[in-house]
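Structure in, sequence out. Go:
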């Protein structure tokens, strides 16, 4: 039986907005370990499912696909988004003066 993981896309460091962070991805877990090619030395394996990434609009759609295809899927929770709320005036506050 094939194994897969389902996760939610996160915002990368170069993004200021949250575009496409509400979609979910399904990736297959590697079925075999990668090994070095004797001729080139590059790492690779015969498992072609590692190249497949499937996108879904909701978590339920991704779970339904995995169940329909007979995949054992586990959901990887994303990091919680934290907001640092501060006012522009906070940049100009003077701290305690040590004399």
């Amino acid at each position: 039986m094939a194994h897969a993981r389902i996760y939610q896309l996160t915002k990368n460091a170069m993004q200021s907005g949250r575009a496409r962070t509400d979609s979910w991805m399904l990736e297959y877990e590697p079925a075999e370990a990668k090994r070095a090619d004797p001729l080139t030395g590059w790492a690779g394996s015969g498992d072609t499912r590692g190249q497949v990434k499937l996108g879904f609009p909701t978590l339920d759609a991704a779970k339904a696909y995995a169940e329909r295809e007979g995949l054992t899927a586990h959901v990887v929770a994303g990091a919680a988004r934290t907001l640092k709320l501060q006012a522009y005036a906070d940049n100009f506050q003077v701290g305690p003066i040590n004399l």
